[in-house]
Amino acid sequence: MIDTYHESFKKRWHESHKAVEKVAAWLVYKGIETKILPQHLTPDAASRMDYVDNGDIEVVLEGQRKIIEVKGRGLKYKNGMFPFEMVFICNAPSFDRADPKPSYYFMLDSSLEIAAILDVDKYRQYMFTTEISDNKRKEKFKGYQIDRRHFSYRLLTIPR
Question: What is the pTM of this model?
Fold first, then answer.
């Protein structure tokens, strides 16, 4: 089962770079100092913890280094917002061990045109852990969720 899941993970990992590149391009367009952080794909599921990254994008805002996590959720947003009231943010152990912690989550819709942006520094106190069911792995894990009202929404439009 873990080998099948790893193959699925590799496909999602490669596809996720489109979302990271889209957000980085938009941030640069907005005049924000932006760097895509190095990413390395684990060769197998057994060694995955050796390949945990420290975020997707680094930006400098008001002289401070901030880390951004980008998620391409593949969801179609309704009226420009998440289609669900509660939003799964990330795996709880992954967030808890991150150093530094992400300052922002950019969660893109399926078109990669709308970003739901969570300011973690501002809304961390509203994040809570819950048990999440992963139907692909047939297991449950702890994850962070938050109400969608704590997100701001932006069109990632870059004029040509």
Answer: 0.84
